[in-house]
Design a protein that fits this description.
The complex is a heterodimer of chains A (about 325) and B (about 350).
Chain A: H1 2-34, H2 42-60, H3 63-87, H4 92-115, E1 132-133, H5 138-141, H6 147-155, E2 158-159, H7 160-178, H8 180-190, H9 192-197, H10 202-228, H11 240-250, H12 255-275, E3 279-280, E4 284-285, H13 288-305
Antiparallel strand pairs in A: 1-2, 3-4
Chain B: H1 9-33, E1 37-42, H2 50-64, E2 68-73, H3 78-90, E3 95-99, H4 104-113, E4 118-122, E5 132-135, H5 140-153, E6 158-163, H6 168-184, E7 189-194, H7 201-213, E8 218-221, H8 226-233, E9 236-241, E10 254-260, H9 263-275, E11 294-296, H10 308-323
Parallel strand pairs in B: 1-2, 1-3, 3-4, 4-5, 6-7, 6-8, 8-9, 9-10
Antiparallel strand pairs in B: 10-11
Helix pairs in contact in B: 2-9, 5-6, 5-10, 7-8
The chains are: A mainly alpha (about 325), B alpha/beta (about 350).
Chain lengths: ~325, ~350
Amino acid sequence: MEDTFLFVVLTLDAMLRVATPLILCAMAGLFSERSGIVDISLEGKMLVAAFTSATVAALTGSPWLALFAGVSMATMMSLIHGFACITHNGNQVVSGVAINIIASGLTAVLGNAWFHRGGQTPSLPSEARFMPIELPFAEAAGSIPIIGTIYKEMISGHNGLVYVAIAMVLITWWVIYRTRFGLRLRAVGENPQAVDTAGISVAWLRYRAVLICGLLTGIAGTYLAIAQNASFVRDMTAGQGYIALAALIFGKWKPWHALGACLMFGLLDAVAIRMQGVSVQLIGEMPVQLIQTMPYILTVVLLAGFIGKAIAPKAIGIPYVKER
Amino acid sequence: MMVKLNLTKRKFLSLAIAAPVAAMVAMNSSVANAATIKVAGIYTQPIQQKWDARLHLALDAAAKAGDIEYVFSEKVANTDYVRVLREYAESGVNLIVGEAFGISKEARQVAEDYPGVSFLMGDPFKPHGSNFSVFDNYIHEPCYLMGMIAGSMTKTDKIGMVGGYPIGEVNRLFHAFMAGARATNSKVEFKVNFIGSWYDPPKAKEAAFAQIETGVDILYAERAGVVDAAREKGILAFGNVNDMNKEENGTDVVVTSALWHMESAINNAIADVKAGTFKAEDYKEWTMMAKGGASLAPYYEFDSKISSDIKAKVAKTQADIMSGSFTVVINDEQPKSTY
């Protein structure tokens, strides 16, 4: 019983660790898409940020400078997306794909040219990374049954950026639903004409949305490269930007729902790792290959039957052109 | 009298191309006369990737020693590999070193079409025809030795192993490691995970974390990312293929590593080609300890932490392997967790 409880708590602990980049990216996508800008370049921006932060951390040894650099580069990419889609009314999907391709190619080429390690950056010492933070009283609380165990094993001892990600969900909810900016942001994604009629600049609102999107993907990429891992590796985002996008749709473009979807993906991953070689009642020991496909099978099953209809913001993907 | 130079554009172009080509042909023949041979390396990964790096380093060393003239292509996709293979064969190289995993049949076809060229390819199957030799890395012997040390150092009697895919090349290393650990510790148990990728450090790290949660205090790092988990959790790890005890992995983390050396195999192939005696052979033995194809890395800072009793045992077993009086069993079955 005790063991089972600890196993569950530790699995949930791993879930938080794995879900963090997904949560940050989903919130980033939420800002952008709620303003009416489709963003499939979450993946690319995260990759650029990961590469930049790992490079800066390797050169300067400062994780804070690395975070700043990573966020700056991701924001730059966001502005390129914005320039193409908002200023020049370009196709948002095409621009997003272009950014993803640029990110994947450029990081590998520059990494190879600068460090000569096949696109990998040098491995970082602990001082140049964000390391896990022990919350106060974690050791002492560990002796308290259940609550103490949960506090010590699951809540304490995470990377600082994990707490940032959770806080971001709360902040996103507050900004989107409780501020004037949030109201206008939602309106511009549904009916930009109305917003324009009220004398508010559609373009400026959308630019602000993509800037926030760049900021959040920047944090996600930095987490991947210098917090979760100790170096940048070619294509290290491995499709997480797309999974975050799926989580956003799962969550019907709402912060708390999206958080739930991200945690579900994280949990599936964490469980899949722990299921290997373990016998399940009735079924017996499952083959490794089946376990590894489980998150994807479940995704399809859940998408097909359980989440109901997801309705996108009405003006999403349509460039806004003032009536002439 | 003026000679009318009837030099059309097309003729001029063909001359411009023909001249350097003729020069190159001349150079080629002069090379063939000298003591060096031309060797091409074709790799599916960047040469910094550790598997291909072993081939590249060995060929590069031979080139620096003046034995061969070395050209290579890296990051050649499997779908493009046969074309590159043919192009090098066509260009008149004497020996081609590369990897035929996944394209075994097509690569053998190329070898049949170019009987004058010698092939030394990484491949899990048999040698083919008269000129297609195969190799694979058989570093299970140092893995056995590492297992012996690991068995003596674990306090919880639990060892974790994280690998890429459960294929023969990986499985045999795991089994050897387990056999070695059992030789020095009869109570030892194992946790085995495969991450379903050759390169996914975050996933390997997560798998290692999951194993540590179950009480594992020693990790065998077949894949990148595992050593990082060991360092963060303050436990020990053993390395694979290249020496992982490096500054960037932190001190007091990697005890030792099973090393793979391609030098002796490649030098043997070069010598055979030069002597005209190159045959289709299985180079398996050339990647094993007795012929210098595999070894155990130095202990560095762990030299004082491994008991002298175990060090003596390891040295003895190593000597027995070298002399052939002890054989580490090759078992390609998929290894399973024991608890």
